[in-house]
């Protein structure tokens, strides 16, 4: 098949959507398909420029300055249309999503969309709290209109499928969890010398344990709750250091918060790290913690499990079938006290036992199965379009 992937974020950016698209591009290419990616130019794009990766002129988005806003030109449109795709797969509800849908409509091919992000949880970037409920209603209506334009919709979890049905989406929906290269994160891949170098790079002394968070540093990730609880954890576990790997609009605020709480000496804000090296940073962790409620799947949880970490997370429907409390991770109720209790479990004997078994529980999320299911979805969309 000749496949067009259209996305508002792609490698070398590091986030769930970019990683999912990169994984899919590589796997589908390995399976013999011709895959073309269209994405906005971003920092470092020149180093990844290849014939089938088409970076489009862009500028920073006003509301999310760490994201770029693409400007497809008539020449870019012509170049995309002349590729004559069998299927177009959009991964954005905005500029690149509209661009991909326009290309598919122009050439008459099947069009599939993955709904990665619950946008009603992000309206505060525009409203800053003013009339936010109105904005959320508009976002829900827009999502309904958008998804009903496609031959098929992909969601990573049943949580997102249920949400779209409540929105009024009637298009066929398939649940296909995003896959990943599990073997890449295997603990045995990293030598003690490599771990030592990475720990030194992050300012971790011998004998110190690491509470880890990797991903976009933004309000919806709720990292400030972990920071708020961290001083109490430090009282009970004085050898723990909080390492936050990533970039985003909340990075400076978290740094200030650490200072105000008096724990800045135990907090490491490393900034972003290259996607190809991210497994090195998982390898230095003991406990991975996330209390976000806005994930549609949360690939970082699986990456952490595959790396042999105990995951401590807030209870959320997206984790159904991913983390079982006390077996493959530790799940917490809402609230600071509940999070502290979960972290203490994670840094105790229970957490160490879970960490030893964690790679086994990550194994079902391998990338090959993901590519096969997406390929089957494409074939059904093409067949439906023909008939």
Give an account of the 3D structure.
With 387 residues, this protein is α/β, with parallel strands linked by helices. The protein contains 14 helices and 15 strands. The protein has helices at residues 16-30, 74-81, 95-107, 124-127, 132-147, 158-167, 192-201, 223-236, 251-261, 278-282, 299-306, 336-346, 349-362, 367-386, and strands at 2-6, 34-40, 53-56, 58-60, 68-70, 87-90, 110-114, 152-155, 173-175, 209-214, 240-245, 267-271, 287-290, 310-314, 330-332. The strands form three sheets. It has a seven-stranded parallel sheet with strand order 3-2-1-6-7-8-9, with helices on both faces. The chain is globular.
Features:
387 residues; alpha/beta; 7-stranded parallel beta sheet; 6-stranded parallel beta sheet; 15 strands
């Amino acid at each position: 098949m000749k496949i067009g992937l259209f996305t508002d974020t792609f490698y070398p950016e590091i986030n769930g959507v970019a990683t999912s698209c990169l994984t899919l591009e590589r796997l589908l290419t390995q399976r013999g398909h011709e895959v073309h990616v269209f994405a906005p130019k971003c920092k470092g794009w020149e180093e990844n420029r290849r014939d089938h990766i088409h970076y489009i002129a862009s500028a920073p988005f006003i509301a999310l300055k760490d994201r770029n806003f693409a400007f497809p030109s008539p020449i870019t449109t012509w170049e995309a249309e002349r590729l004559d795709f069998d299927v177009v797969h959009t991964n954005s509800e905005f500029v690149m999503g509209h661009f991909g849908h326009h290309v598919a409509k122009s050439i008459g091919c099947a069009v599939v969309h993955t709904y990665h992000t619950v946008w009603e949880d992000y309206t505060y970037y525009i409203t800053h709290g003013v009339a936010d409920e109105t904005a959320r209603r508009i976002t829900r209506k827009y999502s309904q209109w958008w998804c009903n334009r496609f031959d098929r919709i992909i969601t990573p979890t049943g949580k997102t499928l249920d949400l779209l049905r409540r929105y009024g989406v009637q298009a066929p929906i398939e649940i296909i969890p995003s896959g990943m290269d599990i073997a890449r994160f295997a603990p045995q891949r990293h030598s003690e010398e490599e771990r030592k170098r990475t720990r030194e790079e992050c300012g971790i002394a011998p004998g110190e344990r690491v509470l880890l968070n990797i991903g976009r540093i933004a309000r919806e990730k709720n990292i400030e709750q972990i920071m708020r609880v961290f001083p109490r954890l430090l009282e009970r576990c004085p050898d723990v250091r909080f390492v936050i790997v990533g970039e985003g609009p909340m990075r400076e605020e978290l740094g200030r918060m650490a200072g105000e709480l008096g724990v800045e000496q135990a907090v490491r804000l490393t900034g972003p790290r290259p996607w190809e090296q991210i497994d090195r940073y998982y390898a230095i962790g003991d406990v991975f913690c996330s209390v976000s409620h806005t994930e549609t799947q949360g690939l970082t949880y699986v990456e952490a499990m595959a790396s042999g970490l105990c995951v401590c997370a807030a209870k959320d429907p997206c984790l159904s079938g991913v983390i079982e409390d006390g077996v493959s991770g530790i799940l917490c109720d809402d609230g600071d006290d509940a999070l502290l209790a979960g972290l203490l479990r994670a840094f105790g004997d229970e957490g160490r036992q879970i960490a030893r078994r964690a790679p086994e529980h990550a194994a079902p999320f391998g990338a090959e199965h993901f590519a096969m299911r997406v390929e089957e979805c494409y074939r059904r969309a093409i067949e439906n379009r023909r008939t």
